[in-house]
Write a structure and sequence with these properties.
The structure holds two protein chains of two kinds. Chain A is 47% helix and 13% strand. Chain A is an alpha+beta fold. Chain A has two domains: 94 residues, Alpha-Beta Plaits; 66 residues, no CATH class. In chain A, strands 2-3-1-4 form a four-stranded antiparallel β-sheet. Chain A is elongated, with a radius of gyration of 25 Å. The two termini of chain A are 15 Å apart. By secondary structure, chain B is an all-alpha fold. Chain B has one domain: Formate dehydrogenase/DMSO reductase domain (Formate dehydrogenase/DMSO reductase fold). Helices cover 72% and strands 0% of the residues of chain B. In chain B, 47% of the residues are buried. Classes of the chains: A alpha+beta, B mainly alpha. At the A-B interface, β2, α2, α3 and α4 of A face α2, α7, α9 and α17 of B.
């Protein structure tokens, strides 16, 4: 696999960034794929992100998984421990009291979902790839960045497209 | 005559379509938002240090009282039968209640797309977290034998001291633990984009700190889309958790046989009271932060007005449930519960009971007057008094009931918490304020990215309306 290059262009507003993404989509550049385009912005802008194409989010599946595991393990853990531990006679009291256990199960249901949701999100953020990213502190201020990872021969053409759409700054790494 | 009427009608129509005051100035630039909020991490007003060191002094006094109680036993705090809880559990409920408004403001209003919450929800969430931490302290303090705190946690052990799972006290530990964990995660997670802004503007050890805290945030589309879904999911999970926590705290009382407590309306009554006192506390902190960190551009009068209206609405829900509770006891079949109610209104604590009803049910009507609710000093006083009323409410739930139980030997007159209890309660306020002020100095107490979103969307909406205006004009 050949070494990939990165190019980052900064724009002053979302309209220009959206038009640039549309231009990238329409262009046919060898060594460049649309899935390698990343939008970087100071706020969430779903309309601009939509121009990149469908990028599904799978967090909810993990939330559901966490909720099921949390409640299941919570109930089974507590009730089996009670059943093992409370072998002594308790006169009319159930060894595994279902209604109070349900309260604790409910809390663990939510806690499990929370832990899985947050963990899934951090994994989906691809933190492990952050060090390879081009970044500019102006993105957290008021600029919109478009980062493209492509083969080195595609970079010149990408730069042309960015310049044509009035990019404020362009930086690249090889 | 007709002309005068027409003129009057015109004036009314003009008033109807008079543009309302903006929640926030949409002309403010994103860069300015960064500058204003980041400045709060650098140079607060003198009042900040006055509050911080005042709170530290109060906290230290509370620690002294706790050490005194620890060395001399709970008797030193004048806690003995029937007054076994004193102020500790009343204040515990108060702090648990305070935590609910953060959830209301950040989670419920997030789902309802009420964007006026954006400049103020961050400190409300912080308030949630620190209130819960303060409430947790009272669980330890009221034990007396602090070193045996682990008994409240549900765990099996070799000494056969398995906790009673049918007791709501065990549920309390689980629920509060879950709520605290989720609240901390929710607060931290919502701050990540802002921590990245801090990282990009900091130097030295601060930069390292914010770099670690911002979890590699780069503002990519993938990060934003996952962030949005995760934040919404956490909000949806937090709401039922918040309701369950205070319902369970209410169940601590409702499942007991004490007169006046054994009512089914307690859980909703507690939840409404929690939201109410929390909203009043948000008004207080709103005013303090607005002045201390020069947030006049973000914590605006129209937002304060909305907060006041919300507080008034919740206060009326609470008042209704309070009256329902009185009615349930009054028309109920338990004569001792009825006597306990009469004792509250006419006995030793009558002054406190009437003060509670006045501060919590009558005083909120000041929030309905625009002239009053837009007056910041008046609102500061009113919000503090509302919270005093709500603390008094918790005091009135606990103490008079213990002083007028089913057995005549419990009918104690004139019991009053001594200096140890009062000192620990005051120390808890110091602890809360100290943590809250530290938070505001280290982390951005106004959500920068959400305010940017708010400003951006309002500006776009205004542009759209302006572009449509020529075609709408006749």
């Amino acid at each position: 696999m050949s070494k990939r290059s990165h190019i980052l262009a900064l724009f002053g507003d979302f309209d220009k960034a959206t038009h640039t993404i549309e231009a990238l989509r329409d262009a046919t550049i060898p060594g460049f794929k649309m899935r390698d385009v990343t939008l970087k912005s100071p706020i969430d802008h779903p309309e601009c992100s939509d121009a990149l194409g469908r990028r599904p989010v799978y967090i909810q599946i993990f939330s559901l998984l966490g909720a099921v595991l949390g409640s299941g393990l919570g109930f089974l853990g507590i009730s089996s421990a009670q059943a093992n531990f409370l072998r002594q006679q308790r006169g009319f009291f159930p060894i595994v009291p279902i209604p109070p256990d349900m309260v604790i199960t409910y809390e663990l249901f939510i806690l499990g979902a929370v832990f899985f949701t947050i963990t899934a999100c951090l994994v989906m953020w691809r933190i492990h790839r952050v060090k390879t990213d081009l970044y500019d502190v102006q993105i957290s201020l008021d600029k919109i960045g478009i980062l493209v990872e492509a083969d080195p021969q595609a970079i010149a053409r990408l730069r042309e497209i960015f310049t044509a759409h009035h990019a404020l700054e362009i930086s690249e790494t090889n | 005559m007709n002309e005068a009427l027409l003129e009057e009608k015109d004036v009314a129509v003009e008033r109807r379509f008079e543009p309302k005051a903006k929640d926030i100035d949409d002309e403010i630039s994103w860069a300015q938002i960064n500058v204003d909020v980041l400045r709060s991490l650098e140079r607060p007003r003198l009042l900040y240090w006055v509050i911080f060191f005042g709170s530290l002094a109060l906290f230290m006094y509370g620690v002294y009282c706790e050490i005194y109680q620890y060395r001399n036993g709970l008797g030193a705090a004048d806690l003995e039968n029937p007054q076994v809880w004193g102020l500790y559990i009343a204040t515990f409920i108060f702090w648990i209640g305070m935590s609910h408004s953060g959830t209301l403001l950040s989670a419920i209003l997030l789902i309802m797309h009420a964007d006026w919450r954006k400049p103020i929800y961050r400190f409300a969430e912080a308030m949630t977290t620190f209130s819960l931490m303060t409430a947790g302290l009272f669980v330890l303090v009221h034990l007396g034998r602090v070193w045996q705190f682990y008994y409240v946690v549900a765990y099996p052990n070799e000494r056969w001291t398995w906790p009673n799972f049918s007791s709501p006290l065990v549920w309390d530990a689980t629920a509060i633990g879950s709520y605290l964990t989720t609240s901390v995660i929710f607060l931290f997670f919502g701050m990540i984009p802002d921590l990245a802004i801090c990282r990009d503007n900091a130097t030295g050890y601060r930069r390292t700190f914010y770099r670690l805290m911002s979890m590699g945030w780069r503002g990519t589309d993938r990060q934003w889309s996952n962030f949005r879904v995760t934040y919404l999911t956490l909000a949806c999970l937090l709401i039922p958790l918040a309701v369950s926590v205070h319902s369970i705290v209410a169940t601590d009382f409702a499942v007991s046989q004490q007169p006046g407590w054994h009512t089914t309306s307690f859980p909703p009554y507690f939840v409404a009271g929690a939201l109410y006192s929390g909203c009043a506390a948000i008004i207080t902190l709103f005013i303090v932060l607005r002045y201390t960190f020069r947030f006049e551009k973000y914590m605006t009068i129209p937002i304060l007005e909305k907060l006041c209206k919300l507080t008034f609405a919740i206060s009326m829900v609470w008042t209704y449930l309070n009256l329902i509770e009185y009615a349930a006891v009054w028309y109920g079949t338990d004569p001792v519960a009825k006597q306990a109610l009469v004792f509250r209104a006419t006995g030793t604590y009558a002054g406190w009971w009437w003060a509670m009803n006045f501060f919590a049910s009558v005083l909120p009507f000041t929030l309905t007057w625009k002239r009053l609710r837009t007056n910041i000093p008046i609102m500061l006083v009113v919000s503090v008094l509302l919270n005093f009323g709500m603390w008094d409410e918790r005091f009135m739930i606990v103490t008079p009931t213990f002083a007028h139980g089913y057995y005549p030997w419990t009918w104690t007159q004139g019991w009053w918490p001594n200096w140890v209890q009062l000192g620990i309660v005051m120390g808890s306020f110091g602890w809360f304020n100290m943590l809250f002020m530290l938070f505001c100095k280290i982390f951005p107490s106004v959500s920068m990215y959400e305010v940017k979103e708010m400003v951006y969307h309002r500006r776009e909406a205004r542009k759209t309306i302006e572009s449509l205006q020529p075609s709408l004009d006749p």
